[in-house]
Amino acid sequence: MNGFSGTLIDTDILVIGAGAGGLLAALSAKRHGAPGTRVTIADTWLVGRTGHTAFSNAWTVVVEPDDDLEAITREIIAGNDWIADQLLIREVLAMSWNRLKDLEGLDLKFPKDDKGRYIRRPTRGLDETRVLCPEGGGLEFSWRLRRGLEAEGVQILDRTFVTGLMRGRGDAIVGAVGIHSRTGEFYAIKARATVVCTNAITFRSGFVRDITGTGTLLAYKAGATLRNAELSYTRPGTPRFYFEGITFAIQEGARFVNAKGEQFMPRHEPVWGDEADVPRIARAMAIEHQQGNDPLYLDMSLVPEPVRETFIKSKVKWMEYFYRKLGKETQTEIFGSTPYYPQNQMTKMGIRTDAACRSDVPGLLSAGLAQAGAANHFAGFHIGMCIGTGWIAGRSAVEELDRLRAPVLDADEVRALHAESNRERNDAEAAKSDRVLRDLQALMFAWDVSVWKHAARLERALDRLATLRETFGALRAPHTHELVRLKETEAMLLAAEFILRASLYRTESRLSHFREDCDFRDDANWLCWVDICDACGAPQLSRTPIPTPISAPGGPERQSVRRTIRGAP
Amino acid sequence: MIETIDVAHCTGCGICDLVCPADVIHMERFSHESEVPDLAQHKLLPVIKFREHCITCFSCEIFCPETIVDVHPVVRNRPRPW
Prior knowledge:
The complex is a heterodimer. Chain A is an alpha/beta fold. Helices cover about 40% and strands about 15% of the residues of chain A. In chain A, the strands form 7 sheets. In chain A, strands 7-3-2-11-18 form a 5-stranded parallel beta sheet, sandwiched between helices. A 4-stranded mixed beta sheet of chain A has the order 1-10-9-8. In chain A, helix 1 links the parallel strand 2 and strand 3. Among the domains of chain A are: about 100 residues, Succinate dehydrogenase/fumarate reductase flavoprotein, catalytic domain (Flavocytochrome C3, Chain A, domain 1); about 100 residues, Methane Monooxygenase Hydroxylase, Chain G, domain 1 (Up-down Bundle), CATH 1.20.58. The relative contact order of chain A is 0.17. By secondary structure, chain B is α+β, with helices and mostly antiparallel strands. Chain B has a single domain, classed as 2-Layer Sandwich (Alpha-Beta Plaits), CATH 3.30.70. In chain B, a hairpin with an 8-residue loop joins strand 2 and strand 3. At the A-B interface, helix 10, strand 16, helix 14 and helix 17 of A face helix 2 of B.
């Protein structure tokens, strides 16, 4: 093959993706590994300045020594509607205090009160759980970790877009290939253990639209099983503005209202009302729309003006800029007269692993939101899971080093992956993937497909998806920038098929999966994960019963919210 | 979405390009006359290459040491469910 050239990097543990999961996986691998263990972390953009975590407050769950670990574990499992790896969640929570100390060891500061206690907050939909966030939010979190990795001797590959996983001459994953996201230069990274931490597929829809989550699909193509495709993180929001902090605004008195001025959440969620978890709010909003009660608004009039200012002074740096640059009139608009919608942020589809974060494929591990251990997105819990699973995956990757044979590359495979990553580029070609992406977003985010589902609508969406994939197949990239976007859109099209098929497959409603034609939870038949694996080039769906060693459904339903939070910092 | 970079006051440090998570800004080489005849002088300056792919994260503006980048806060082109 002509033009086959690039760079071969040899390492022991390769971590793909540099959000909280990837950063912690790399740190953990270095700290658990014997002296001289080579750890490499690669991200499409700048490690420490990208990923979901970097653009968040970095709220994270921490269980302090005096907290009731079992009660917190049980309420989080219930909050996941039992779509949860219970043992993994308990381990993540149990280690959260030590991880907090690790982060403080990297000079990350967590606010304390005048008695020296950490300042923590409750989070939406949970009573016992408490979350806290570092000074400087996610940007500081991510950058301190980058500096920590540099100090530990981790090799950092910025701007490396991974396009495939290598199987080599055996059954195990032996690393990955990718391209420099600016120059297009080809890289093959040989590794004995590979940890995928690339978040979940987002369709460029979330508030951090650089995240595309392609790693899960690469793992699928390499033989891993995916799960939770029918579940999503859909949160109330407004397309015109970013507003990170709705959870806490509601705790301070904000309420959702419809076009008639009615507070509609108590009608849909009599126990939790506006403090219901985000999937329940999304469901209520979709039904309000179906009933002709939109536009829907977030009424902030009950939140005292000084408290609103605390949201404006968000710890998220970009929000600080955002609010500062908005005029007073626009600030008023966001707090009351801008329509809100259920906005799909990302799928919750992740890689199936055991409680040690090992996938079904030897040498392939997963952490962060690319791992399918939990499916809910409680504010603070998901970053807590990223931190915990990252730590566990890094530790397990080190253990794998002794179990797996030395990786041997397959030259033909590397050439084939190079050819695939080097999709023909044509300077005369206009960038067209944006149009396919917009059509895909319109298809997948329609309220009656993504939130309030129905078998007939899902079938129709599958038909339209097939047409979109045909259009996409003919596209060529004019340059590397577009090539990266094309590869990302290709993964999104595959993810869309899994989401629609899994949504059809699960004939009940649970967590963030709501079927208008099956509007009930069916524990007798569906206390299961929906797993998807490749069977001779076609996705094969199956059920895996969910073990319940800690908590099983069927206990008494909660009758009220115990806590009241006002004026918390 | 990114609006402008005041390149007249840019030092060419390239931080805006480095921190952009959407590959919007590219440093490109510009030639200008030098004080030494036959010796070309170049300067690297940021170019807003893919403005429509800006994710309005403000990173370029936040980290620009010369405060010459302007990002407009209102987001366009976000998908809606209805």
